[in-house]
């Protein structure tokens, strides 16, 4: 299990971060681990998948990736291994092709001369922005720093290195700069059955400011970020991380001070104009249909539907 523990550590420490990257990394890890398992294939893979599943409770992409890979079949251990590897490779292809399609679809919603605001570091949102730039559109980006882990620094560097003009702002300046913005594009960690968005903390405040200013608010989200579990009534767990990400020193140990560090917040569907997926641009109200027709889960052999990437072909 050394390989699995190392992978889990990388996810928990955010060495591997971002919903799509985490999902892809989990599929790759299970694929490589399956190659090394000599006996008790089912039990070893179950233990490995459960360890990875528990690393980031809010990231439904991780849940969907693991459940897709673990829905393998076969009689012998070798047949099961081949099936799992094939499913892992299918999911990895799903991740790679979905991002490209989202970029092409979303770019059509960005007009020439636009100022785009984005938050955190979403590969899907960046794909939309880059495709718009590649189409020759004159755009600039306002990126939040995205405290406390400062993922916005990664976004700023990536876009600037790509040749796009970027302005980096502190998170609390979002409303101040919203008057300069033509469209907001963010990523997603989870889309619920009612069309709500769970994303990096601060997203809901940006959506509120955008709605107040009548600025379109778009979400770039692969369909594997939609949550089948919410269809069955389960609530999304909002992860709270170590207070030391926010502050250190005397205040942290002060008996009268409590520091809380939620990693995500919830943006109601009423604040979302459009969700850009690899199967098209949809209103948030269509989340139920995406989950019903394209997704499902079975927790390690339990009852259920089938998570399928067939629509990416």
Automatic annotation (TrEMBL):
GO BP annotations listed: L-methionine salvage from methylthioadenosine; pentose catabolic process
Its top-level enzyme class, in one word, is isomerase
**InterPro entries from the UniProt entry:** IF-2B-related, IF_2B-like_C, Initiation_fac_2B_a/b/d, M1Pi_N, NagB/RpiA_transferase-like, R15Pi
- Keywords attached to this entry: Carbohydrate metabolism, Isomerase
Recorded hits in Gene3D superfamilies, A to Z, give:
translation initiation factor eif-2b, domain 1, Translation initiation factor eif-2b, domain 2
* One of the record's GO molecular function terms: S-methyl-5-thioribose-1-phosphate isomerase activity
Q: Which SUPFAM superfamilies match?
A: NagB/RpiA/CoA transferase-like
What EC numbers are recorded for this enzyme?
Answer: 5.3.1.29
Identify the residues that bind substrate: 17-20, 56, 199-200, 225
Q: Has UniProt tagged this entry with the keyword Isomerase?
A: yes
Pfam families in the cross-refs: IF-2B (PF01008)
Q: Keyword Isomerase: yes or no?
A: yes
Active-site residues are 120, 189
Please give the catalytic activity noted in the UniProt record: alpha-D-ribose 1,5-bisphosphate = D-ribulose 1,5-bisphosphate
Comment field (misc): Reaction proceeds via a cis-phosphoenolate intermediate.
Q: Which family does it belong to?
A: Belongs to the eIF-2B alpha/beta/delta subunits family. R15P isomerase subfamily.
NCBIfam families for the chain: eIF-2B_rel, ribulose_e2b2
Q: What does this protein do?
A: Catalyzes the isomerization of ribose 1,5-bisphosphate (R15P) to ribulose 1,5-bisphosphate (RuBP), the CO(2) acceptor and substrate for RubisCO. Functions in an archaeal AMP degradation pathway, together with AMP phosphorylase and RubisCO.
Q: What's this protein's name?
A: Ribose 1,5-bisphosphate isomerase
């Amino acid at each position: 299990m050394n390989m699995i523990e190392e992978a889990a550590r990388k996810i928990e420490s955010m060495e591997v971060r971002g919903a799509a990257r985490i999902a892809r990394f989990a599929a790759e890890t299970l694929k490589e681990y399956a190659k090394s398992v000599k006996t008790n294939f089912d039990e070893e893979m179950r233990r490995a998948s459960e360890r990875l599943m528990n690393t980031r409770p809010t990231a439904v992409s991780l849940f969907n990736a693991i459940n897709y890979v673990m829905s393998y079949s076969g009689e012998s251990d070798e047949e099961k291994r081949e099936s799992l590897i094939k499913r892992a490779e299918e999911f990895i292809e799903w991740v790679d092709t979905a991002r490209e399609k989202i970029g092409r679809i979303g770019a059509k919603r960005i007009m020439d001369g636009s100022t785009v605001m984005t938050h955190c570091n979403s590969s899907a949102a960046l794909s939309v922005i880059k495709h718009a730039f590649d189409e020759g559109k004159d755009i600039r980006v306002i990126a939040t720093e995205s405290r406390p882990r400062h993922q916005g620094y990664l976004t700023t560097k990536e876009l600037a290195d790509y040749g796009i003009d970027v302005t980096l702002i502190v998170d609390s300046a979002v409303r101040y700069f919203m008057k300069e913005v033509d469209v907001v594009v963010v990523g997603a960690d989870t889309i619920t059955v009612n069309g709500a968005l769970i994303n990096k903390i601060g997203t809901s405040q940006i959506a509120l400011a955008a709605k107040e200013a009548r600025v379109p608010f778009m979400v770039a989200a692969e369909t594997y970020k939609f949550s089948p579990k919410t269809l069955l009534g389960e609530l999304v767990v909002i992860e709270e991380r170590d207070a030391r990400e926010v502050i250190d020193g005397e205040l942290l140990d002060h008996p009268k001070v409590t520091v809380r560090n939620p990693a995500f917040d919830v943006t109601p569907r009423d604040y979302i104009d459009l969700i850009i997926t690899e199967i098209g641009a949809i209103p948030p109200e269509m989340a139920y249909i995406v989950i019903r027709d394209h997704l499902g889960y079975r927790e390690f052999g339990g009852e259920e539907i089938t998570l399928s990437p067939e629509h990416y072909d």
